[in-house]
């Protein structure tokens, strides 16, 4: 289950617009997470979008490095921290994680903060 397939990526423009207009959000520095419960019949419990500001990181290699680290941290911890809770509650969500940090964080920090973000998201979904 440590995969990150095409079905898990959020690509639908209508869903993305709805997520940013009607979704809930919270901060877990260096990330900002926005999420929305959906009633659609998606194959996976969560679809996710990763973003890094072009204004803050001008060079594409820097943005890609951060997104690669975020995807890897999510891929390794999504099953235990997110999917099990979503499947137990029979819910499906769309999720956006934006990087708002001022400098490029090492992978260890990103992994720790991603774990914290997923735990916080699971807690908000239970409410």
Summarize the structure.
Helix content is 47%, strand content 20%.
Write the layout of secondary structure elements.
Blueprint: H1 13-22, E1 24-28, E2 31-37, E3 46-52, H2 60-89, E4 93-99, H3 107-126
Helix pairs in contact: 2-3
In CATH, the topology is named Ribosomal Protein S5, domain 2
| Domain count | 1
Biggest β-sheet description: 4 strands, mixed
SSE order: HEEEHEH
CATH architecture: 2-Layer Sandwich
User: How widely separated are the two ends?
Assistant: 27 Å
Low-pLDDT segments, ≥5 res: none
Overview of the molecule:
The chain is an alpha+beta fold. It has one domain: Ribosomal Protein S5, domain 2 (2-Layer Sandwich). It has three helices and four strands; from the N terminus they run αβββαβα. α2 runs parallel beside α3. It is globular and about 40 Å long.
Key features of this structure:
Ribosomal Protein S5, domain 2; 3 helices; globular; alpha+beta; 127 residues
